[in-house]
């Protein structure tokens, strides 16, 4: 039996950052993660950080490498009908985004937790939550064949979409909102200098494509694909040929072809919009992918996880600031509503970006509307400002 103030389930960016923010507030945590530290730090994920996210990472004391290696982008481009249209984020909002891989954010947070000497259990099996509706929740798990129990004041469910935390809440206590998209994203990571300065989101008659990057020597690119597709059907050559077809010959010609750039990672991910409400059940709080999923088109997944745990850390800080006898649960009530307001804004934007930039089977009328809305975006400063505001992220 161990005792702590907050037991955190999941060592993704949400769990690790919450641990770091609470550490800065002198609040004790134990972190329980099902996978190994190597696996967690090796996962390939997205990498566009809103300025608000950078601020929170600075507060957590984990932004020095981000500032040293992150790429500041003042705009993004939209490709349509063989032309590229730049959305000048800086001119429209006064803000820029930072391209810095989630893998790097996770590594910086893992290093900070190790440096803080805060307890983490990787390869924690069979994590289970108990008595979360009451004042004394407990978490049990097995580690190297031995059973363990943690007594705590609160549990933070940061264990992602497939985690145990959300599933520990009675179905009647949760409202779930979901939309599944009829296509996936085929992503490739490759080592060559990005022959594009800023991200390019392309709506082409052959489907969506995204030209992104990780560093001055590494690119990350995506193609809309069928959910029936299998990685084996997509050779590197087929990927880059199709990529060139969708981005247009000018960009296509810049991708190394002799030899073909070998992929160092290739994966297919489904697209989903998902929200579970509320984010609190008794002494359990949900944050990050455990509570919501956005399609990656708006680059909001990581940024939402960060804003969730920023709000949650503030709520817990306010709770623990009161002397033990005066601690009011009311300080915690605001978390769910505050986070959900931002979550639904990001859900709407991510859904809008997905609807604007992908080929949807079937409806020619919808396609005409999509094209008309894109043309309006390119002609209207007001429409561009709305897109830019959402892309750089609404105020925290
Ligand atoms: N017990 C312990 N750990 C668990 C369990 C469990 N039962 N189930 C899942 N986990 C761990 C996973 O192994 C993972 O490391 O919880 C962690 C959840 O991390 P993420 O999925 O990265 O979720 P989150 O921290 O909310 O980050 C959201 O990740 O998927 C991207 O686009 C998403 O950028 C967003 C970010
Ligand atoms: C990425 O770099 O992986 C990336 C960037 C922007 C997105 C999605 C993914 O919208």
Tell me about this structure.
- This protein has 396 residues and is an alpha/beta fold.
- It contains 12 helices and 21 strands.
- It has helices spanning 13-24, 37-42, 51-59, 64-69, 89-93, 102-116, 236-247, 249-252, 301-321, 330-357, 364-379, 381-392, and strands at 2-3, 6-9, 29-32, 48-49, 71-73, 76-80, 83-87, 97-99, 120-121, 125-130, 138-143, 146-151, 154-157, 175-190, 200-204, 207-215, 218-225, 263-277, 280-281, 284-286, 292-293.
- The strands form 4 sheets. An 8-stranded mixed sheet has the order 7-6-15-16-17-14-18-21. A 6-stranded mixed sheet has the order 9-3-2-13-20-19.
- Helix 1 (13-24) runs parallel beside helix 6 (102-116), helix 1 runs parallel beside helix 9 (301-321) and helix 3 crosses helix 9.
- The two termini are 38 Å apart.
- Bound molecules: adenosine-5-diphosphoribose and P-hydroxybenzoic acid.
- P-hydroxybenzoic acid binds at residues 46-48, 199, 212, 220, 296-297, 299.
Give the arrangement of secondary structure elements.
Elements: E1 2-3, E2 6-9, H1 13-24, E3 29-32, H2 37-42, E4 48-49, H3 51-59, H4 64-69, E5 71-73, E6 76-80, E7 83-87, H5 89-93, E8 97-99, H6 102-116, E9 120-121, E10 125-130, E11 138-143, E12 146-151, E13 154-157, E14 175-190, E15 200-204, E16 207-215, E17 218-225, H7 236-247, H8 249-252, E18 263-277, E19 280-281, E20 284-286, E21 292-293, H9 301-321, H10 330-357, H11 364-379, H12 381-392
Parallel strand pairs: 1-12, 2-3, 2-13, 3-9, 6-15, 13-20
Antiparallel strand pairs: 4-8, 5-8, 6-7, 10-11, 11-12, 14-17, 14-18, 15-16, 16-17, 18-21, 19-20
Helix pairs in contact: 1-6, 1-9, 3-9, 9-10, 11-12
The structure holds adenosine-5-diphosphoribose and P-hydroxybenzoic acid (PHB).
P-hydroxybenzoic acid binds next to loops.
């Amino acid at each position: 039996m161990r005792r702590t103030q907050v037991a955190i389930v999941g060592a993704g960016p949400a769990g690790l950052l919450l641990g770091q923010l609470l550490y800065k507030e002198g609040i004790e945590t134990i972190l329980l993660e099902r996978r190994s530290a190597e696996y967690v730090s090796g996962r390939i994920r997205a990498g566009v950080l809103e300025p608000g996210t950078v601020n929170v990472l600075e507060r957590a004391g984990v932004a020095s490498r981000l500032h040293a290696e992150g790429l500041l982008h003042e705009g993004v481009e939209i490709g349509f009908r063989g032309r590229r249209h730049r959305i000048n984020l800086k001119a429209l909002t006064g803000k820029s985004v930072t391209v810095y891989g989630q893998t790097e954010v996770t590594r910086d947070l893992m290093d900070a937790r190790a440096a803080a000497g805060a307890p983490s259990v990787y390869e924690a099996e069979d994590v289970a939550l108990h008595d979360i509706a009451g004042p004394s929740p407990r978490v049990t798990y097995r580690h190297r064949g031995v059973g363990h129990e943690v007594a705590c004041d609160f549990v933070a469910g940061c264990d992602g979409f497939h985690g145990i935390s959300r599933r520990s809440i009675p179905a009647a206590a949760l409202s779930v909102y979901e939309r599944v998209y009829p296509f996936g994203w085929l992503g490739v990571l490759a080592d060559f200098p990005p022959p594009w300065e800023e991200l390019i989101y392309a709506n082409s008659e052959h489907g969506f494509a995204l030209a992104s990057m990780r560093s001055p020597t590494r690119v990350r690119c995506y193609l809309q694909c069928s959910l029936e597709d299998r990685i084996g059907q997509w050779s590197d050559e087929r990927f880059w040929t199709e990529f060139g077809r969708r981005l247009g010959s000018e960009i296509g010609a810049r991708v190394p072809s002799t030899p073909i750039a070998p992929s160092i990672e290739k994966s297919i991910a489904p697209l989903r919009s998902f929200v579970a409400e509320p984010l609190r059940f008794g002494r359990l709080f949900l944050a990050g992918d455990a509570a919501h999923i956005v399609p990656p088109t708006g680059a909001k997944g990581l940024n939402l996880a960060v804003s969730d745990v920023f709000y949650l850390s503030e709520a817990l800080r306010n709770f623990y600031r009161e002397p033990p006898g005066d601690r009011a649960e009311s300080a915690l009530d605001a978390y769910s509503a505050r986070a959900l307001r931002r979550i639904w804004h990001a859900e709407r934007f991510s859904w809008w970006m997905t609807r604007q930039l992908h080929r949807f089977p079937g409806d020619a009328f919808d396609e005409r509307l999509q094209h008309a809305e894109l043309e309006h975006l390119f002609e209207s400063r007001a429409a561009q400002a709305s897109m830019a505001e959402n892309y750089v992220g609404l105020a925290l």
